[in-house]
Amino acid sequence: MPTVRLSFSPAAAHVRTARLVGVAVARRAGVAEELLEEVRLAIGEACSRAVALHRSHGLDDLVDVAMADGDRFTVLVVDRAANGAMVARTEGETGDEVLVLSDPALPLTTPPDLLAEEAVAARMGLALLAGLVDDLNVSELAEGVGTQVRMSWPLERPAE
User: Fold this and answer.
1) Which residues contact 6 (CB under 8 A, 6 or more apart)?
2) Are 5 and 64 spatial neighbours (Cβ–Cβ below 8 Å)?
3) Strands (E), the chain
4) How far is CA 77 from CA 49, 50, 113, 154, in A?
5) How confident is the model over 25-57, as pLDDT tens digits?
6) Which residues are CB-neighbours of 156 under 8 A, at least 6 positions away?
7) Phi and psi based region of residue 96 (left: phi greater than 0; alpha: psi -120 to 50; beta: remaining)
8) What pTM value is reported for the model?
């Protein structure tokens, strides 16, 4: 299947459309039925985060979403906000996997009552995504300003 692309203005009303399209594409790509709710929630959170970042930075740029299947069903959500947020999984001192959330645009010392609602939503979105998606990568864009949230899920394909 070719890549399906969706771009929308940073309005919360468009997040529902992105979720619906994402689940339809995931189903067609061969994602297991029991993972479709996770896909729906993750796409919704990633898109809501992008919308919140755009709104908190006063940006009218479009939020871009790309969905493709290959070895896995992959979803990319790109925002154009200067935030430098990242998520990394690493091995801790005890050998267990540790999740590191980095969001330099929102210092931990900022009192919650001083944060805009959109900024809080953006920060919580990373934590929720980390709990939802096993294969998650959040990184700065290679070109330009913004971040890319990359998520993927395994495909069920019949044995050939």
Assistant:
1) 17, 18, 21, 64, 65, 66, 67
2) yes
3) 4-8, 63-69, 72-79, 86-91, 97-102, 135-140, 147-154
4) 9, 8, 28, 18
5) 999 999 999 999 999 999 999 999 899 888 888
6) 30, 31, 32
7) beta
8) 0.77
Tokens (6 digits) for 106: 């929102």
Q: Residue 55, CB half-sphere, CA atoms under 13 Å: how many?
A: 17
Rg (alpha carbons) of the chain, rounded to whole number: 16
Query: Distance (Å, rounded) from C-alpha 17 to C-alpha 41?
Result: 13
Distance CA 83, CA 97 (A): 25
Task: Please name the residues in contact with 136: beta carbons below 8 A apart, sequence gap of 6 or more.
Answer: 87, 89, 129, 130, 149, 150, 151
